Amino acid sequence: MTTDAHMTLIDAPVGTFVRIRHLTSRPEISTRLRELGFCENAVVRCVMKGYGNIICEVCNTRVGLDSGLARRIQVSVSE
Amino acid sequence: MSSPAGGAELNRPGGLRGERHVAHGSRGASPIRLVALVGNPNSGKTTLFNALTGLRQRVGNYPGVTVERKEGRLRLGGGPEVTLLDLPGTYSLIPGSPDEQITTDILLGTADHTPLPDAVICVVDANHLERNLYLVSQIIDHRIPTVVALNMIDIAERSGIRIDVRSLARELGVPVLPTVASKSEGIEELTSAVAALPAANSPGNGWRLPAPVERETDELAGILEEALHISPPNARHEAMKLLTTESALLERMDRFAPEVIAHVKRDQDKLDFLGFDRHSVFVESRYDWIKSVCMQSVARKSSQERSLSDRIDAVITHRVWGVVIFLAMMALVFQAMFSWAQLPMDLIKQGFDWLGTRVAVAMPPGDLRDLIIHGGIAGVAAVVTFLPQILFLFFFLGLLEDTGYMARAAFIMGRVMSKVGLHGKSFIPLLGSFACAIPGIMATRTIGNPRDRLATMLVAPLVSCSARLPVYALMIAAVIPPLTIFGFISLPGVTMLSMYLLGLGMALFMAWIFKKTLLRGGPPSFIIELPPYTMPSLRSTLTLMWERAWLFLKRAGTIILGASILLWFLASYPKLDGGTPADRLNHSFVGFAGRMIEPAIRPLGFDWKIGIGLITSLIQREVFVSTMGTIYDVGSGEGEHGGLAERLRSSRDPLTGANSFTPLTGICIMVYYVLAMQCFSTVAVMRRETNGWKWPLFQVAYMTALAYGVTFIVFRAGTAMGIGGG
Predict the structure, then answer these.
(1) Is the backbone of residue A25 left (phi > 0), alpha (psi -120 to 50) or beta?
(2) DSSP string spanning B377-389?
(3) Model-level pTM?
(4) Do the chains contact at B411 and A59, CB–CB below 8 Å?
(5) What's the pLDDT at B591?
(6) A60: nearest CB among B127, B284, B414
(7) Under an 8 A CB cutoff, do A68 and B523 touch?
């Protein structure tokens, strides 16, 4: 089940699964994020936060993103 | 049941036309000659390349290691040998960096330097099938005959992933062969499958766009095909790119006629009006198809357990422990280079000493004996002695890469990097520059933004490379006492670490300056894949060490030997009969050149002998050591033996009798070498990578000014504090 509570990826608690709703970064960056699996409706797990970065797991792969970018990925909690 | 792949474009009347049709339609007459190896970073592509060709090549574990063009020979089944081209790793054919651009250009047949490959081996990591199939689907779109190598299938099976290979091949419409490249498993089957490839892909269950988007894309592709005279797959690729391009950017695209741009804008408006998100619809549709392919072909045992990588990451990337571990790793490398490397270094030195003695005994006195002992053996020995330290450095760099730690280190350093306006990915080129600035500069090709890339290239040579190591080691041996602080930290080790930190710190500082002035731009975005932790491969680490050792010895045997002999000649002629050894050196060509530049370097505390070293080491930095070896060997009297460091320490000014090589001199030399661009090869690589002389010349100028300025300040401050006295 998915709640309606919208937030950005940086707000996602560590260990939770979130569903991507919308990307608001620059078009070329958004394209790359989508190609790496961060496309709308994809489910992402927040693995770790620190050093101004965040580690997520998407498509069974770990990806590190800077927090500025994570703030531009709108998500909702996915259960 | 299968339906034709790729939706409408494959069913268009007339079928394939253009250059791709010509290339593939004549397979019978023109057999496979060029095979390209393509794949995501970390898919095991380089390991598979080694397994297929038998060529030795470095295997990396972080994105962006394959930035050079690498070719090998491959025998297809029992047939003739063909060329296998290892293309830079990429996630997509919409390139985001210069190395991805190379791969895209070659696969689209638009590269000037390389023809369109006759076949493609697409390497896929079986553990990350979904993400890897994205690139596969793009390559299939381009209709190049393709074989998918389903690599690391053993690890996937161990972690509960079961892949139905037949079903996957059917869905994709191309042959799929399971491989374990690290154990050379599945290689023969793979090459046989390439040999049996038809001239074009047979269609599988291709991905589809929503009908209105498909219609607009198809129509635009038709227009582009006519206007640009390109093949249907390339036209479709171009159409999808244009439909997602911002209108402001469209205006600036002068390769398209105004009416084509107007058509694109109308199509964009239409799709916007219909409520499609043009930016996401193409990627999402592809992923929807990939998901359905995986649903058909992949069974996954669900696991709620924390993976080993999770548990390791919790410590390695921890807020506090991450930094502690990172610093401890770096400290370990420098301590090891000084303690563990000592024994082999002593052995090498003793070996050369023995050789010199044997030659002295075997040959009659004369110019030839002097040339061999003082010109050849002394010069080469001074440099080769440092081989063990260089090997240790590469041993650790290799281990950090192979375990997957390097990408984590980039993650940890991401914040520091962004503080100075650099890209988080810039850390990897900078770390590589500890070994050599040339691979460091080439590794910046993974950075997409040109300003961030240039800033990284400009500062990379400030990071202390292995060629500076012999200079530091000699100076430390000469002027830093072998004391131990707190019972376990050696003062020479700390001094060495300080030099490395000075270089790194200055690189970051200069990057900050450049990003604030010449290369102003917004904060870069940082996206990096973190590969799973793996056991380091001893074979790959040893291969790296062997390659570096061979390169180093080759330079010692050619450039350094040549420079040493030339220098011996210049330091021995014109001959002066009688006088002290110092008088004879003073009378030589070298003495003349050194005295010429002495006024310019005197403010740095350098005399004419050091000046000669600065000139000769423009070839490469370690030549400074062999120069000192030659000058001090030539300059010393008969019977004065002992290490070069000892000779430097005990050298006296012939006029005043004061110590001419003080601790401050040693420190100033090290500081100068940390900051100066004393490397022709780096200048050449910069010229190649920036396509001109402007940036390399700017780099030489700013680094020389920086080195001169900082060394001057250190010398004045040191003199004021009274540490310059002998």
Answers:
(1) beta
(2) IHHHHHHHTTHHH
(3) 0.75
(4) no
(5) 81
(6) B127
(7) yes
CB B429 within 8 A of CB B562: no
**Could you count the other beta carbons within 10 Å of the beta carbon of residue B520?**
10
Contact yes or no for A35 and B528 at CB 8 A = no
State which residues form the domain around A59: 2-78
Structure tokens at B521: 């731009």
d(CA B483, CA B495): 11
DSSP string, B13-42: TT---HHHHHHHHTTTTS---EEEEEE-TT
Each residue's pLDDT tens digit, A20-68: 999 998 888 898 899 899 988 889 999 888 777 889 999 888 899 988 8
pLDDT score for B636: 54
Per-residue DSSP letters for B155-195? HHHHTTEEE-HHHHHHHHTS-EEE-BGGGTBTHHHHHHHHH
CB-CB contact of B235 with B228 (8 Å): yes
Q: Which domains does chain B have, with CATH numbers?
A: 8-195 (3.40.50.300), 211-275 (no CATH), 322-726 (no CATH)
Highest mean pLDDT among B26-35, B187-196, B252-261: B187-196
Which CATH number do you get for residue A47? 2.30.30.90
Q: Would you say B120 and B145 are in contact if contact means Cβ atoms under 8 Å apart?
A: yes
Of B91, B283, B314, the CB nearest to A39: B283
Mean pLDDT across the stretch B131-152? 93
What chain A residue is nearest to B247 in terms of C-alpha separation?
A27
Number of domains in chain A: 1
CA distances from B264 to A31, B171, B217, B223, B280 (A): 19, 32, 10, 10, 17
Residues of A within an 8 Å Cβ radius of B: 23, 25-37, 39-42, 47-48, 50-53, 55, 58-66, 68-69
Name, of B62-66, B190-194, B328-332, B643-647, the range with top average pLDDT.
Answer: B190-194
Do A31 and B283 make contact, defined as CB atoms within 8 angstroms? Answer: yes
Tokens of A51: 């050093």
Distance from CA of B104 to the nearest CA of A (A): 15
Q: Work out the minimum CA distance from A60 to partner chain B, whole angstroms.
A: 6
Tokens (6 digits) for B56: 């030795």
Residue B626: predicted pLDDT: 79
**Using a CB cutoff of 8 Å and minimum separation of 24, what contacts does B573-579 make?**
none
Nearest to A47 among B127, B310, B529 (CB): B310
C-alpha–C-alpha distance, residues B440 and B50, integer Å: 23
Contact B429, B456 (CB under 8 A): yes
Q: How many residues does chain A have?
A: 79
